[in-house]
From TrEMBL:
SUPFAM superfamilies: Chaperone J-domain. It holds the Pfam family DnaJ. This is DnaJ domain-containing protein. InterPro entries: DnaJ_domain, J_dom_sf, NERD. GO terms for molecular function: unfolded protein binding. It comes from Agromyces intestinalis. Residues 146-257 form the NERD domain.
Length: 310
């Protein structure tokens, strides 16, 4: 199970409610194990997940520890991974890309607001990143924290592009629509083009079909359509055009490192694993226009004049 706020709990993997008695838990475990067993046509990954879930809640002691938020030695690690990271001294002396804005800041602020609202007025939330609290929250609240984490990971990857690139994070835009965050996650400018990027963790596998991201976990969402609208709002104000629209997801949610589709308003659409992002931007996408040095400087000046942050 991935260390994500959207990861299924061991109860969900086994297929039983968290308040099930020991007999019901054991019966559900055996049923899930049979269904997932590779010898009966099941999925090896699902089989391993069921076994690991049982290790977390299969004994009264392990279950009690998990229910307290300290199960299987993972809760402390989850809390550390989910909370804002403390600044660290750099060991690498290579120049980083020029970066502006606060990656993941909007999503974290919205998460903190909604988690406290969900807990209830007058109730003190000592630790909003406590794994037991996070796991019990509604999916839309956990999704905000998951998005903040992948946005921060994307920012770390983009910083390695080097001084030839400029990166803006959490750009304000009014083109998101009433149900979507009013911002563009990342905008990257360099010799390989102008990339509008959305970082996402939907908690499951997705793929690219022509010019849209699809998957069971998406519901009625149209991520590329929304990304194109956000990018257009900014690029129109700056009188520039993005050369690529990219959606970044955790590695385990995409079967291939990079999927390239068609174009939207002249911008090439791509779905990419987080670990492949920096190299994909540095190399440029197939069919995507590269920019000359003078052109990069002009586009940067135009963007700097109009960019606002969420």
């Amino acid at each position: 199970m991935a260390d994500s706020p959207l990861s299924a709990s061991p109860y969900e993997i086994i297929g039983v409610s968290a308040d099930a008695d020991d007999a019901a838990l054991r019966a559900a475990y055996r049923r899930a194990l049979r269904q997932a067993h590779p010898d009966t046509g099941g999925d090896p990954a699902a089989f391993h997940a069921v076994q690991r879930a049982w290790a977390m809640i299969g004994t009264p002691e392990a279950r009690a520890a998990y229910d307290r938020g300290r199960g299987y030695g993972t809760a402390d690690a989850s809390r550390e991974a989910w909370a804002p990271a403390a600044p660290r001294a750099r060991r690498d002396s290579r120049p980083l890309a020029r970066s502006y804005g606060h990656p993941g800041g909007f999503s974290r602020e919205r998460y903190l607001e909604l988690i406290r609202e969900w807990v209830g007025r007058g109730v003190t939330v000592d630790d909003p990143y406590d794994p037991a609290l996070v796991r019990g929250a509604p999916r839309d609240i956990r999704h905000l924290l998951a998005d903040a984490l992948v946005e921060e990971q994307t920012a770390r990857s983009l910083a390695t592009l080097g001084i030839a690139y400029t990166v803006w994070h959490d750009l304000a835009t009014d083109a998101a629509g009433p149900s979507l965050p009013p911002k563009l996650d990342h905008l990257v400018l360099g010799p390989s083009g102008l990339f509008a990027i959305q970082s996402e963790d939907w908690g499951g596998e997705v793929s690219l079909r022509r010019t849209e991201v699809v998957g069971e976990v998406l519901g009625r969402e149209r991520p590329v359509h929304a990304l194109a609208a956000r990018a257009k709002a900014i690029s129109r104000a700056a009188r520039v055009k993005p050369t690529a629209l990219m959606v970044v997801v955790p590695d385990e949610h995409l079967a291939e490192p990079l999927q390239v589709g068609g174009t939207v308003r002249g911008a090439v659409v791509a779905l990419v694993r987080s670990s492949r992002l920096a190299s994909a931007v540095r190399e440029g996408l197939p069919g995507s226009a590269h920019l000359g040095g003078t052109e990069v400087m002009e586009v940067r000046s135009r963007l700097q004049a109009v960019v606002r942050f969420a």
